[in-house]
Amino acid sequence: MAALQTQHPRGGLYFEDFEVGRVFRHRLTRTVSQMDNLLFSSLTLNPQPLHIDAYFCATETEWDGR
After folding, report:
1. N or C: fewer beta carbons within 10 Å in the chain?
2. Burial of 39 by CB count in 10 Å (0-12 exposed, 13-18 middle, 19+ buried)?
3. Which pLDDT tens digit goes with each residue over 19-50?
4. Which residues does 44 contact at the CB level (< 8 Å), separation at least 6?
5. What's the mean per-residue pLDDT of the chain?
6. Cβ atoms within 10 Å of 17's Cβ, excluding its own
7. What distance in Å separates the CA atoms of residue 26 and residue 12, rounded to the nearest whole number?
């Protein structure tokens, strides 16, 4: 955990306070799926191919896929 962890005014953590690999235990669990990503991108009017086009991601990005 970050040494100087600060509380966001509305609760929670600031982005800088998160650590790679940290697990947050919660009794309500859910796995975020590809469909969640597609729905969120569509609902927020974000047509960026990086988020919604598998072929673009596989051929045009450095990550070779999503």
Report:
1. N
2. exposed
3. 899 888 888 888 888 889 889 998 999 988 88
4. none
5. 81
6. 15
7. 14
**What's the gap between Cα 65 and its chain centre?**
16
* Cα 57 to Cα 9: distance, rounded to the nearest angstrom: 37
pTM confidence score:
0.48
Q: Where are the beta strands (DSSP E) in the chain?
A: none
What lies within 8 Å, CB to CB, of 53 at 6+ separation is none
Take residue 28 and report the two structure tokens written for it: 């309500």
Q: Are 56 and 63 in contact (CB under 8 A)?
A: no
